[in-house]
Amino acid sequence: MQATLLGILGLALLGTLHAQDSIPVQADFQQDKLTGRWYSIGLASNSNWFKEKRHLMKMCTTIISTTAEGNLEVTSTYPKGDQCVTRNSLYTKTEQPGRFSYTSPRWGSKHNIHVVETNYEEYALVATQISKSSSSSIMVLLYSRTKELSPERLEMFTQFSREQGLTDDEILILPQTDKCMADAA
């Protein structure tokens, strides 16, 4: 009985490790080239939060900078009702370049962040595995240096999101807005 339980736990651990490995990371990741201003173009997630707020979401701006310790300071400004809300997050570097961790002080959720693919000058595709107590979800973000991206890049985002198990109703190309865009300069 104990051996069976240990075997099941071992398989569960292997499954968790495999899930983390199943999300690729940009080869030869160059963190300094990721810094600067980005626009969120696409957002996909199977989280309850996304399902509840999806109809309210709009494009936002994100400023990425490197801290003295080599971590990423991520500042996103987005419209919420009649206001502009700014959220700051500190992504802690891991042993693998292009992978970061973050723990939400508000929700206590742990985020395993992967910079999946980027050419640094046009787009960045980022996938985040989120775990909180007994639940887990995935979030995929598509960033652009401009407010528009080619249909090929949008399709790449949609296809990658589907490969992560997300359905079409969990994938959103964010509506453009001029609101809160100037605040994040």
TrEMBL record:
Primary location class: cytoplasm
Gene3D superfamilies: 2.40.128.20
Keywords: Cytoplasm, Disulfide bond, Endoplasmic reticulum, Fatty acid biosynthesis, Fatty acid metabolism, Glycoprotein, Golgi apparatus, Isomerase, Lipid biosynthesis, Lipid metabolism, Mast cell degranulation, Membrane, Nucleus, Prostaglandin biosynthesis, Prostaglandin metabolism, Secreted, Signal, Transport
GO CC, one annotated term: extracellular space
Entries under Pfam families matching the protein: Lipocalin
InterPro entries: Calycin, Lipocalin, Lipocalin_CS, Lipocln_cytosolic_FA-bd_dom
Similarity field: Belongs to the calycin superfamily. Lipocalin family.
Name of the protein this chain belongs to: Prostaglandin-H2 D-isomerase
